[in-house]
Write a structure and sequence with these properties.
3-stranded mixed β-sheet, Cytochrome Bc1 Complex, Chain D, domain 2
Amino acid sequence: MQDDDTQNPAFLWVLQAESLWTTRAGTANKSCADCHGAPAALKGIAAHYPAWNSAAAAPITLAQRINLCRTTHQGAPDFPPESDPLLALTTIVGLHSRGQPLDIDETGPLKPFIQAGQTLFNTRQGQLNLSCANCHEDRAGHRLGGALIPEGHANGYPQYRLEWQKLGSFPRRLRACMLGVRAEPLPPNAPDATNIELYLATRARGLKVETPAVRP
């Protein structure tokens, strides 16, 4: 399903994004196309996210970058986390990086945030007292409830999950994992979630962007 664009259900959101891309919004009455031209002009961009944002003095995700464009350049309100328009626009940008290797700058100001994400990845939590690494490193390739445990590479988000019957972001998948170990899930746009996503992007360095991926 993932390899055939005509069968990949995430392309319903890509079609939505193509319309959103040219729709003017906000007090500036500007569209994405007014600044960037066609989505293909952003080829390779998604392979470098999460990325450093000087104004925030912190890393931001691609979805957060899109919302910054809305508030800063369009004068429009943020799209809510997990909303279809935000997922759609994040997907179409990611789609034009498909096949590009993940490449995060690990030497600059992102370094302490990568280390924070690595620490969180290896920290046990919840009533089951499990870390991300316990499943996605120690037990990768084994099965849990009949499903194969993956290595936890976040190179295909937003992705369509059959269990959701919908497109979803990395933070949504992370919250599901946290609920699975009976831990308190992180709120939307939590810095800890961004740090984990950033660490996973460095951990998967060289793997190709698969957005929009399809998973069970």
